[in-house]
Design goal:
Layout lengths: L7 H20 L8 E5 L5 E4 L3 H10 L5 E5 L18
């Protein structure tokens, strides 16, 4: 597969579109709130785990040059350094 050159903003937008249109309804359940979903923006594959590390490793093993993006399920940001993470899922 040929690598697609995308900016960080384009990667983020593709991931957010995939999450909103395909993935959210499958993963945004109570037991997943606060976990990370890692999305391969080229294949649409995704995995969920507590921190996103194992999911990233698994997806990278399948596709070594994958463009991955992480979203914290049910929250407005993935991480915060001294700020507030606001829950958007009720």
């Amino acid at each position: 597969m040929q690598a697609i050159l995308l900016s960080r903003e384009e990667v983020a937008q593709r991931a957010k579109d995939l999450y909103a249109n395909v993935i959210r309804e499958k993963v945004e359940v109570e037991e997943n709130i606060g976990k990370m979903v890692i999305i391969d923006i080229e294949t649409g594959e995704y995995e969920v785990d507590k921190t996103g590390l194992q999911s990233s490793r698994n997806l990278s093993q399948k596709h070594p040059n994958a463009r991955l993006f992480g979203i914290r399920i049910g929250y407005n940001v993935a991480v915060s350094l001294g700020g507030v993470i606001e829950r958007v899922h009720k």
